[in-house]
Write a structure and sequence with these properties.
The structure is a single chain. The strands form 9 sheets. The chain has an 8-stranded parallel beta barrel, surrounded by 5 helices. It has 661 residues and is of the alpha/beta class. Helix 3 runs parallel beside helix 4 and helix 12 packs parallel to helix 13. The longest helix has 19 residues. It folds into 3 domains: 145 residues, Immunoglobulin-like (Sandwich), CATH 2.60.40; 224 residues, Alpha-Beta Barrel (TIM Barrel); 104 residues, Golgi alpha-mannosidase II (Immunoglobulin-like).
């Protein structure tokens, strides 16, 4: 919201009337205004200022009824800093900023700079005279790439999601159903009548909310929306840590998208990348003629996989920058959670490096102690200030206690992606069924560690790119078997312990590998097999949300019980899912072969009738229609070490779910 400053004239100076704005002095071009208090400077240099976006960057500050702009930028090794832009014809010396003590911050007020104008910082280094033009690290809005200027903007917006914000704790807590639909904004849906352009934020709000609500997903997770110069990075090479990409609209348009999803009862998780940033000249790298945000030594400051810079997590001001970015999206954009990308690359000094290419820590080990400290502090402060959100780690190693509190020795995340489940399950399901009996352990191994973390089961974007093929394309067999295998995989995921995540296209059996330059193939829904997948995922989502046994105890051993995990010869597994109450119990049986199995006996913990509530082989899903005629009663025959059992028909390549009544 724009700030209003009123002044009264005296011979000596102009005095501010509004508290919180220091003395205002006028010269021919500028007013000497500062939004920074001494406390701000102290906290910034100490590393504990978490809302720098309220102080640094560009801020509209009206003085005497004239809307000018206050600028503040951190460039401690600069000899001079100038603001260049539309307001001065990009003159490199006409509008200098002044240093604020020894804080490293340069600031100034320019009455001619108005909302909507373009600007950059022209920085002259102290020691080597290096000159550079930099995008504002704290800009709220930037030009659409490949252009690189920042835009003076404010974030005024009238939110209408009060009801959601008041109750979202219930939607984000660990015993709630969490089914995440992962979306890349640029390629989810395009407009063929207009050159196949991407939908903008406003258009996406309507179409995405309708689709997600109909299908029953609880949350949407956006691949990084933060401004990024290279579209092909999918947002993972972030240049604007406080600006949603302008490719799809203004900041308020993205606010509208979040607001609209909230009104429709859908949570919003944002992918966030504090692990590295691009080396583009206009960006954070070598910002003031020194390696300010990144480590100077490439063995610590350059990422070999992504050809990008790595943040210096040991520098207090850099920690403030990243902490403020996390707070910003939770504060100004009402995000319900942050999925933190590439955590493993932050934890290990030797991540993706050979011997001699990395520098050990002070104890001689390979752990990045500064990054670990930052991650723990980040999670502590986020949960302290926003207790109703979730911090989610994409961490691909066996680092222990990622999703455990810091007070017990953990990293402090709320949840973690289960990359092991994803890998093992896809290795198993992509094998021809005749060979699966020899790889049964890849299906069952997960339960040895399933409760060591609060896991999300991800079938994400990473599994459908770079020649890996789509989920449907990975499946073996003829076309019928491919669709049956995909339904089986999704049924197994939704009934396993852990929250769920599915990348766009997987919900209807996208056949082609994901291409970020093209729309999903929505026309496939005109065909029964793809419509069947969509209906199957819809029914899975609604059952998952409705049935407490499938979500309440996702992270507790009491929520899962094997019936039989050893029938490798038949490639069949059976297990029980349980809720918090005694009566909440379901039986899941998965047949991973195309062989229908009649008279397949399964032990159950309770006598009575077991109703078949889902069957992936039903004809409405393009299955063969084989099943158990609505359910089966138990027999007093001990089986699988249980006093009662049921005699089932197992459809081919299918998941069936039965509820005890």
């Amino acid at each position: 919201m724009a700030k209003t400053v009123k002044t009264r004239k005296t011979k000596a100076s102009r005095k501010t009337i509004r508290p919180g704005i220091p003395e205002v002095k006028k010269d021919p071009v500028r007013y000497d205004i500062s939004l920074l208090q001494d406390t701000d400077l102290y906290l910034f240099n100490e590393g504990t200022h978490y809302r720098l976006y309220e102080k640094l960057g560009s801020h509209i500050v009206p003085v005497d009824g004239i809307e000018g702009t206050y600028f503040a930028v951190w460039a401690p090794d600069a000899r001079e800093v100038f603001v260049i832009g539309d307001f001065n014809g990009w003159n490199k010396t006409s509008h200098p900023l002044r240093p604020r003590g020894n804080s490293g911050i340069w600031e100034g007020y320019i009455a001619e700079a108005r909302i909507g104008m373009l600007y950059k910082y022209h920085i002259v280094a102290r020691h080597n005279g290096h000159r550079s033009e930099k995008t504002d690290p704290f800009a709220f809005f930037n030009e659409t790439p490949p252009k690189t200027a920042s835009i003076i903007w404010d974030l005024a917006y009238s939110w209408t999601d009060k009801s959601w914000m008041k109750k979202r704790h219930d939607r984000n807590k660990l015993d709630a159903p969490v089914s995440v639909y992962e979306v890349h904004l640029g390629s989810w849906m395009r407009v063929p009548e207009q050159g196949f352009r991407s939908l903008n934020y406003q258009e996406t709000a309507i179409e995405l909310a309708r689709h997600v609500k109909e299908m029953g997903f609880t949350h949407v997770e956006f691949l990084p929306v933060m401004e990024h110069p290279f579209y092909g990075s999918w947002g993972y090479q972030v240049s604007g840590y406080f600006a949603p990409t302008s490719r799809y609209g203004a900041p308020q348009d993205f606010m509208h998208l979040v607001d609209y999803l909230h009104q429709e009862g859908i949570g919003v998780i944002l992918d966030w990348v504090p692990s590295h940033f691009p080396c583009d000249g206009h960006n954070l790298g070598y910002f003031d003629g020194t390696h300010l945000y990144e480590h100077a030594d490439p063995k610590k400051g350059f990422h070999p996989d992504w050809a990008s810079y790595i943040f210096n997590y040991g520098r207090n001001e850099v920690r403030c920058f990243l902490m403020s970015s996390a707070f910003f999206w939770l504060d100004k954009y009402h995000a319900d959670g942050l999925r933190v990308d590439a955590v493993a690359s932050m934890l290990y000094l030797d991540y993706s490096r050979e011997d001699g290419e990395w520098i050990p820590n002070r104890f001689g080990g390979n752990h990045n102690l500064e990054a670990i400290s930052f991650i723990k502090h980040l999670n502590e402060e986020v949960y302290k200030n926003y207790p109703d959100v979730q911090m989610i780690a994409e961490e691909s190693t066996d680092w222990s206690m990622v999703s455990r509190p810091t007070y017990s020795g953990g990293l402090g995340f709320g949840m973690k992606w289960d990359m092991g489940w994803m890998h093992d399950t896809l290795v198993y399901i992509t094998k021809e069924p005749i060979h699966r009996k020899h790889h049964h352990n890849e299906l069952t191994f997960r339960m040895l560690y399933a409760f060591t973390e609060n896991f999300i089961l991800p079938l994400s974007h990473d599994e459908v790119v770079h020649g890996k093929g789509s989920l449907l394309g990975k499946m073996p067999g003829d076309p019928w078997q491919k669709f049956a295998n995909l339904r089986l995989l999704l049924g197994y995921m939704y009934t396993q312990v852990g929250k769920k995540l599915l990348f766009m296209g997987g919900e209807f059996g996208q056949y082609r590998e994901w291409n970020h330059d093209e729309s999903l193939d929505w026309h496939l829904l005109a065909f029964h097999p793809h419509a069947g997948i969509r209906q199957w995922v819809t029914d899975l989502n609604h059952l998952y949300r409705k049935e407490p046994a499938l979500h309440e105890l996702d992270f507790q051993p009491a929520g899962f019980e094997w019936i039989d995990c050893q029938d490798a010869q038949s490639s069949v597994i059976s297990f029980i899912r349980k809720g918090k109450t005694t009566g909440s119990i379901v039986l899941v049986v998965c047949n991973f072969t195309p062989v229908p199995r009649t008279d397949y006996r399964v032990g159950v913990p309770r006598a009575g009738f077991w109703r078949e509530i889902l069957n992936s082989d039903a004809k409405e899903y393009w299955g063969s229609g084989l099943g158990n005629f609505g359910g089966v009663g138990t027999d007093p025959i001990a089986w699988n070490h249980r006093p009662h059992s049921v005699n089932l028909t197992l459809p081919p390549l299918a998941t069936i779910v039965l509820r005890a009544e």
